Amino acid sequence: MLLKCRTALLAGLFFTGVPLPCSAQVPVAHFPVPAPKFEVRVEKSVMVITRDGAKLSTDLYFPVGVKQQLPVILIRTPYNKSAEWSVANAQRFAAQGYIVAVQDVRGKFESGGTYTISAADTNDGSDTVDWLVAQRWSNGNIGTTGCSYSGENQVEMSKLRNFHHLAMNPQAASGGMQYFASLRGGAFELAATSDWILSNGAKTRPAPDPPKVDWPALWRSLPLKGMMARAGMPPTDWDDFVTHREGDPWWRTLGYVDETDNFDVPALFVDAWYDYGAGDTFRLVDLLQKNSASARGRENQFVIVAPTTHCRYELATEHTVVGVRELGDARYDFFGLYLGWFDHWLRGADNGVQKMPKVQLYVMGKNEWRGEKEWPLARTIFTQYYLRSDGHANGRFGDGALSLDRPADETSDHYVYDPRSPVPTVGGPDWGPAIGELKSGAVDQSDVEMRHDVLVYTSPPLEEGIEVTGPLDVVLSVSSDQPDTDFTAKLVDVYPDGTAFNIQEGIQRARFRDGFKKPVWMKDGEAYEIHVNLNATSNYFGPGHRIRLEVSSSNFPRFDRNLNTGGKNYDETSWRIARNTIHHSGARVSYILLPVIP
User: Fold this and answer.
1) Rounded to two decimals, what is the model's pTM?
2) Are 296 and 197 in contact (CB under 8 A)?
3) Positions marked active-site
4) Fewer Cβ neighbours under 10 Å: the N or C end of the chain?
């Protein structure tokens, strides 16, 4: 696997320590953790006092033998600062000459206070930065790092623009802007959120062991409100999460960022195509660029997107498999780059980190890393692939087609969505517990495509390969005989042997088609335009491959089932069967807008 010319300078600086001339390609080496420069000692359970008196337990890692004041890297976690992965991450930074502070967030493990998901992280993080700056061993330069929740709380803290918070490295942090990644198109991320809250969301201390549950039975149980109590959990934030829709001002009480916030912290974001929110991470980057108070913040927002699932970037091998899809040599010197990032912003090292491409992404299918200047790519040709059929697109043996030609007069496609028998989730982002042989990532969709309630639209085999890199949008002209229902879409790469790998997927609850401020209902017989956000991707559909779009009304248990009644959904125990229609004729066209890279 080879890196392109645009990343040659960075490759030289961080892989060898010497800038390389820009040539066509440079080989990627294996990237072990660098040899430690220092032994490390640890001070356990030091209490940091916040502005409201809460005591936050913090472990401090010091490089042994260093007398001068040093910069500090802060990691704040709800997953136990003493967990093996927390210790390992702290050790490797401290061994390179940084002081590292790893802290249990409020209400978790050794820290005091009451835990509410993300509510206290903005102020607590900034208070911890102030405390670190005041210590005799600190030089006042503070950076932050961490993945998932530990990535989100960096972004949330950054809106306070603490003068000493000089750099951050948020990984898988899209939930910092997206309601903890629990809501998508008005639907609720059921499987992942329920697993997270059952494993990590207890408000009691010490946290009990998570109860053993029958996940399929629990997910199918109704109503959605009260699910954690039925599972045997102590108090959690579950009911608040499922009862507040996207856009509800209540979410602002939890510290998530939005378009009204201001920033000024250079950021190195990392995400993955088979995670929940690569597209949302690009939205975060754009927000920080637009709302930064100075050129320092505006001009130093970087993002790297790997082909893996959640927080598994550094586990890529020379034969990377994501789900069951082989994606080549996806290794990358992530830790080397993290060190270079903090060396520059916290130590003032002139190491070229600001000259790296603003966007570095892994093109799946081509199986190569590539550097880009912007997002979306300036050379993108947004191309409409229209849904076509003679009215029988049900299942992969139907007559559904994807075409560059706009349809004229065609028969609509119909299917029945019964919440009692939803379309099963197969692959996609990490969605919590592994049940049987279920996998996250890329998984063959052939069995799902046999269902009559899944409409399948497929292009002819490609004579030449097509790269699709950028945001994905599906526009559907729809009808239903119920006041509310969901519409789902899934982009699929069909290999020459017929294996159908999921690339990206999304959902839109019809009542929120005009936004989240005011629900609007459907009328039987009327057609409406629905936009389904499929997030973003970078995928090369090779010669002989086919581009496929699946359309349905459920993707369960990733998303909660719409019960089709027009009611609140979260407090209901009965449902209606919906007869749904996809139009693709004349003025009522349906299509997927693909960001094609020439």
Assistant:
1) 0.94
2) no
3) 148, 275, 310
4) C
